[in-house]
Structure prediction request, 221 residues.
Amino acid sequence: MRKIIGAALTSLDGVIQGPGGPTEDTTGGSRFSGWLPPVGDDAIEHKIGELFGRPFDLLLGRRTYDIFAAYWPYASEAMADIRDPFNDCTKYVVTHQDQSLVWQNSQRVGAIEELNAIKQGDGPDLVIQGSSTLYPQLLKAGLLDELTLMISPVVLGEGKRLFGDGTPPGTLKMVDHRVSDGGNIIVTYHPAGAVEIGTYVAEEPSDRERNRQAKMEDGAW
Prediction:
């Protein structure tokens, strides 16, 4: 069965918007499109090479598709190592809109549920780039098999985040990690089930603590 693999370039505070350049994605008034080049390093390049140095298809939201379709078919020969595989692979685009998908080998996915059938079919793994709106839906549907985060040492404070509105609770198991000399963290997780609740407190609560908990229940704390 094919896997769906998330591969996100993210700041320390979880922003994945517009890492590549100043005009990539300024929606919402984002001031920091192009935040990655000054802080990225060889560790990120190595991981990108691993992800796209083997057969893959792309899974994209509409806006990331628009960004890629306006760039990669026209990229220079210097970018051929990524340009050619991106052009040749199948692009699965999750969108409710009916705009034409003119980039070669592009297929519309009208609903997230359709991805289950795609996973059961033949072909390479599907790799997500950008596409922040996909993660809550994929996690909720139990369709995300693996998540690699390439976390850079920068805090942006604004922008589209990896886990946005509607993200369901869950735990993850780390299966690989690397910390670069430049402070970039490359870490890979597999989903690992529901969030469990525990406590470090064994003693009976004090009267003051009971009072605090009562206020918390009443929304007065």
Remarks:
- Strands lie at 4-11, 57-61, 91-94, 106-109, 126-128, 146-152, 172-179, 185-191.
- The radius of gyration is 20 Å.
- The CA atoms of residues 88 and 105 lie 7 Å apart.
- The chain is about 25% helix and 20% strand.
